[in-house]
């Protein structure tokens, strides 16, 4: 379908998101025809539907250039997990305009690195704390239904990535 394609233009990324919404709707029909509620159950019944992971590296930039992408992102965040489409959203500017409430409320797990203010921490995690991080790999993780925990990320260099490819 999309494979490992990297899209750098907002229009192209928006079209891909619209295509994923159509794929989500088609997958929901497939699951209904199989009489199952999620991808794992469909695969247990022999379906070959793969998981799809979408990474939006700069959400603020995408929404600034193509505001209509917000609708597709919200629909995917609301319904796509059960049918095997997963979103990873990242932004350097976690403002309420770049991570709107309806989208935020449908993202169950979140990670915050160092932010400038308590307001930005609240936007990402719904609580304070990320503004107090040291900025040397420490981060806060809030998984769905669990308390926020502090963790330390690993530094990955370009050479490390190339060795794994």
TrEMBL record:
Domain FtsK residues, every copy: 1-122
GO MF assignments: ATP binding; DNA binding
Keyword Metal-binding: no
Protein name as it appears in the record: FtsK domain-containing protein
InterPro entries tied to this protein: FtsK/SpoIIIE/SftA, FtsK_dom, P-loop_NTPase
Keyword ATP-binding found: yes
Keywords: ATP-binding, Nucleotide-binding
